[in-house]
């Protein structure tokens, strides 16, 4: 019996955590910027686009972590 550790899963979990933290920070920044009356709309749009890209990356990584079970 061989004792091997699936380091790929740990790397994916670490990456997922990193992406979620970035997403939360951008979300907080968007909330802060949007609450100001003198909001730069272009900057706000760029932040929202980056947040959406991060969300897509998180979803893709989560999907890759689901085991492929044959029914």
Question: How would you describe the overall organization of this protein?
Answer:
The protein is mainly alpha-helical. The chain has a domain at 19-63. It has two helices and no strands. Helix 1 packs antiparallel against helix 2 (41-65). The relative contact order is 0.15. The model has no long low-confidence stretch (mean pLDDT 89).
- The tally of beta strands, per DSSP, is 0
Helix amount, in percent?
over 70%
* Rg computed from alpha carbons, rounded to a whole number of angstroms: 18 Å
Largest sheet: none
**On the 0-100 scale, what is the average pLDDT?**
89
Q: What is the overall number of helices?
A: 2
**Which spans have pLDDT < 50 for at least 5 consecutive residues?**
none
Given helix and strand content, the structural type is mainly alpha
Distance between the termini: 27 Å
**Strand/helix succession:** HH
Shape: elongated
Q: What portion of the residues fall into strands of 2 or more residues?
A: under 5%
Structure characteristics:
elongated; 75% helix; single chain; mainly alpha; 71 residues
């Amino acid at each position: 019996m061989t004792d091997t550790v699936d380091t790929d899963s740990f790397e994916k979990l670490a990456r997922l955590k990193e992406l979620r933290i970035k997403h939360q920070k951008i979300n907080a920044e968007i909330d802060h910027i949007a609450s100001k009356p003198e909001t730069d709309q272009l900057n706000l749009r760029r932040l929202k686009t980056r947040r959406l890209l991060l969300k897509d990356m998180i979803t893709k990584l989560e999907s890759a972590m689901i085991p492929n079970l044959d029914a």
